[in-house]
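Every protein is a chain of amino acids, and every chain bends into a shape of its own. The fold becomes a row of whole numbers, each drawn from a learned catalogue of backbone shapes. The protein below has been through that process, and both of its lines are reproduced in full.
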Amino acid sequence: MEELFFCEIRDLYDAEKQLIEALPEMAKAASSDELRCFFEKHLRQTSRQVKRLERVFKVLGEKKATGRKCAAIAGLIEEANEIVSADGDRAVRDAGLIAVARKVEHYEVSGYGSAWAHAEILGYGKAARLLDQTLIEEEEAKETLTGMAPRASNRFDLPKTRSAVG
């Protein structure tokens, strides 16, 4: 269980570091002020989350925080980069950015939730409290994006109902 837990926090550490690199580009690509502000705020929050993970490593007796390549976030960032570089309607790009950001938040909520639970099982109370702080922030970010999605979609004309294709 301890090995699994350390793999989880190393994965989260790398994921957050990758997001620090990606979020500025996503913010630049956002045409909506609300979305751009979200990405800018989340970048600052992500930097604090990296520092918090570094504290988790320290609490656990690790001299240095180390990451383990998070392929899932790398794939989602690749998807975000495709959206950022795509030509076309800016409102559609914003909707795509919201969609990929929601996927990132779902991943992070799942990852931090599991790491928190495993820290609790292992008796790492201080680490669990630090992870829980980040879990709460990620859940709030997910909810913010969920609320933004309909507003982004309302910026262009869509059919009022879905129809079956085929």
